[in-house]
Structure formats: C-alpha cells, structure tokens
Amino acid sequence: MGNKIRQFTLIQQNDTHAYMESHWEHFWRNGRSEYRRAGGYARAAAVVRQIKDATGGKCLVVDCGDAIHGTGPAVWTKGAVIVPALNAMGVELMTPGNWEFGYGPEVLRDRIAEMGFPVIACNVERAATGEREFPASEVREIDGVRVGFIGITSPIVTQTMPKKFGEGLRFSDGAESLPHCIDKLRREEQVELVVVVSHLGFPQEVKLVKEVEGIDVLLSAHTHDRLAAPVRVGKTLIIQSGFDGSFLGQLNLEIANGQVCDFRHRLIEIAESIVPDAATERVVNEQLAPFRERLNEVVGQTRTALNRMTVLEATMDNLITDAYLEVTGADIAFSHGWRYGAPLPPGDVTVGDLWQIIPTNPELFVVEMTGAEIREKLEMSLESVYASDAFSQKGGYVIRVSGLNAIVRLNNPKGTRVQHLDIAGAPFQAARRYKVAAAGEQDVKSGEQSEQTGMNAIDALREYFQRHSPVEAELTHAKFVAV
C-alpha cells in the first residue's frame, strides 16, 4: 500500500421518508421562503449512475435511514411499496432510521428480507436473548481500500415513540459498543478506514465522535440538516444531505497511509431538470399505479404555504392544531413536533398531501390536564429540543399548539424555560383543569383518562378543509416567543 493514493466516493441519501417522486421542496433565499420541485428516486438514480461512471464504479451508495415511512402508499403497504425503488436506484448499504420501526420489528424484518443490500446497526439487540437484531458492520473493498462500515440507529424508538415500534428490542446510544466494533474491524478485518453510518442526529453525532476515537467518516441523518460542506470534528468528517430525497451527498475521498489525506464534497440538489433514470422510473410508476386515483383526490385549497421548516411554530402544524381544536371544542390542542412532511405552496391540497402531512393518521382524543401539567408538558418538550446534553435531545421540534401562548427563554436550564403562559386567552391557572385535544401515542395521553373521539387526524383535516377552503395557517409569532 505504501504512499500510493487511492480514491473512492461515498454517495449518501438520508431521511427520504418514502418520497419516491418529485415533490415540492422548501428553500431559503435571503431569509425568504421559496418553493420548487425536487427529489424522486428516478432522478437520484440518474445522478448515481453519472457518479459511478465518472469514478469507474469506485463508489458506494449508502442510505442512512427513514426510507420506508412517510407517505400514504408507504403506510398502506407497511413499507413494501418503497423497497423495489430502493433496490432499483442502487442503494448498497443502509442503517435503519427510527421510522423504519414504524410498522413494528416483525414487519421490518420482512422488508429487510426484500432489500437487495445489507442493513446494519450496532446498538440494537433482542431483549429476550441479547443477540444483535442487525449485523453491526460490513466490510467493503473499494479501489483496494478495505473500509469498515458500522451502523448505528436512533435509540428514541423505545424512548419517545409508540411502544409497538420497538417491541421486544433494546436500544443503546451506541457510544459503549462503537469502540469494540472499531477495534474489531481494525484488528481482525484489517480495515484502513472506518465509516459510521448513523441515524442518531447531528448534535448527538458531533458529541459521539468527540468521545469515540477511530472514526474517519460519519454519514449523518435524522435531524434533516442540509450540510453544504463537511463538518470536521478532530479527524472525523461528517456529512448530512437534507431530507425527502431532495439531495444526495457526494464525498470523494483520497486515502494514503491508512487515512484520509484529501476530500471533495458536493451537496447535490435533485432538481426537476435532471433527466430521470428510465429503469428506476418504471419501477416507481409500477409501485404507485394502484394508488394514483386515491392520492390525486383534491380535498380543498390552502392560501398559506404549508411547511415544517421553523422550530418554534410552523404553518403545517398550525393547520393540524387548528383543525383539532375546531372538531373537538377543546381549550387547547397539541400535535407532535415532527420534522418530516414535504411542503405545499398555496393551491390545491390532495389526499396524498394529507398523508404526507401526518402519515401516522392517529385517532384524536380529549384529555383533561391541569395548568401545572400543561406547563410541565411544555418544559419537557423544550428540554427534548434544547437540552444542553446532546444525548438528551430526543429529536423533532417543539410541540405544536393552538389555544396557548408562551414566553420562553431557550438557554435556561431544564424546567425553567417557560416564563409566562396564557391558555385560552387568559393567564394560566395551575390548578384549573383544561380540555386538551391531541392525537397519537407521542402526545400527552398521560395522567387522566382520555376520551376517544372516533375521528382520525386525516378525517379531521378533510373536514376542516371542507369548511374553510382556502385555509389559512400563517405563523402567529406568538405561540412561543423566545426572549
């Protein structure tokens, strides 16, 4: 090997959330929102083919998870509709994201059996036996370089997500298992380079590489960051490539003496101008054909551009919580602070759009909570987003609300961020009982017995569109005011 410089390329996609075709995407320009169409597996496949041709095949396509959940067709088929497209576009290695577990571990095992590539994660084991749920690592030789890939997924599956997601499994943060995996790859497999394929989230990954030695490259995911350039932490390069399949990350590496001596990176927008790969496009069309009519049904219009690109309050979630409040007559409404969901510019809204806004489609319920309990819920949400310890951050944005306003100090310690709270137009009373509307196991549903409504979230949204089209859900800039 000596001083000879060898080269290979990593192609990353992450958090595609089952977006198989071109869709509306949100971009910031000079502090303002812009919308244009991007993404789609067929166009991504065309870019992959170009890179493979340019590198003489000295590359590997890696998916960092959250690929089989997030749209109507994905949920209706428990992820089965997505797998042929992943295979067709050329994915060669994957780590599962938290939403891969959205149909339960048994279904995920079925989906993995259909995938034409390995799925790896070092931090998941079966609770009953202690055996690994996935292989921890995979070794590939590219241009004569032995590369060890280690997978690591998000432990929030059993911390903040519905119980069925991780039933029978045990997750760790991975920090304790990574050193052993790295040592084994270097000693027993004689790898020159270690690449971690991660779905922990960018803040957690930065902390991880500071604590664990021997990681050359970390392919990041979960937090939907569009990193325009690699972040270097010590000797480790970290990249992340957006979400919803709107971008690919290309990392060209030069290797000498067992380490990265140079690199080049591109964050590639999967623009609508890219000519799709014909073979992948045929697969996508075949998979989606049975669902086209249902997806294209128009349910109403929106006057407000709907997106989830803002942390404290978002227009897409204002729509959800306003609908919950109206159909239940509650005092306030909560919805989970999800990051996923492709944006929608003003115009028609379809059934397919509703399933992208809230693909879990949970049933609404109403529960009574005291003012003190509501305040505690807000503090917990703020801590999960802004915790000073990265491993205590649980992903997502601040809980979405209608019917309350809070003044918050985000850099305050845990439990002390809410400075002032109004509920239903008046200062909150700690002992007063309020009616709270929510949906899904990720929301409140603790303490008092909840009253089920018999209405699912998408039905509530359809009803709201029927009453109010074109709907408005502008940012109030008052639900959470940071001071």
List the helices and strands and how they pair.
Layout: E1 6-13, E2 23-29, E3 32-38, H1 41-55, E4 59-63, H2 72-76, H3 83-89, E5 93-94, H4 105-114, E6 124-126, E7 137-142, E8 145-152, E9 169-171, H5 178-187, E10 193-198, H6 202-211, E11 217-219, E12 231-233, E13 236-239, E14 247-256, E15 259-269, H7 278-288, H8 292-296, E16 298-302, H9 315-328, E17 332-335, E18 347-350, H10 351-357, E19 363-370, H11 371-386, E20 400-402, E21 404-408, E22 418-423, E23 426-427, E24 433-439, E25 451-456, H12 457-468, E26 480-482
Parallel strand pairs: 1-4, 4-5, 8-10, 10-11, 11-13, 17-24, 21-26
Antiparallel strand pairs: 1-14, 2-3, 6-9, 7-8, 12-13, 14-15, 16-18, 17-20, 19-24, 19-25, 21-22, 22-23
Helix pairs in contact: 1-3, 1-7, 3-7, 9-12
Give the tags.
single chain; 483 residues; alpha/beta; Purple Acid Phosphatase, chain A, domain 2; 5'-nucleotidase,  domain 2; 2 domains; six-stranded mixed sheet; five-stranded mixed sheet; 12 helices; 25% helix; globular
Q: Can you describe this structure in just a few lines?
A:
The protein has 483 residues and is of the alpha/beta class. Helices cover 25% and strands 29% of the residues.
Question: How does this structure look, described?
Answer:
50% of the residues are buried. By secondary structure, the protein is α/β, with parallel strands linked by helices. The chain has helices at residues 41-55, 72-76, 83-89, 105-114, 178-187, 202-211, 278-288, 292-296, 315-328, 351-357, 371-386, 457-468, and strands at 6-13, 23-29, 32-38, 59-63, 93-94, 124-126, 137-142, 145-152, 169-171, 193-198, 217-219, 231-233, 236-239, 247-256, 259-269, 298-302, 332-335, 347-350, 363-370, 400-402, 404-408, 418-423, 426-427, 433-439, 451-456, 480-482. The chain folds into 2 domains: 6-289, Purple Acid Phosphatase, chain A, domain 2 (4-Layer Sandwich), CATH 3.60.21.10; 297-482, 5'-nucleotidase,  domain 2 (Alpha-Beta Complex). It starts with 5 loop residues before the first strand and ends with a strand.
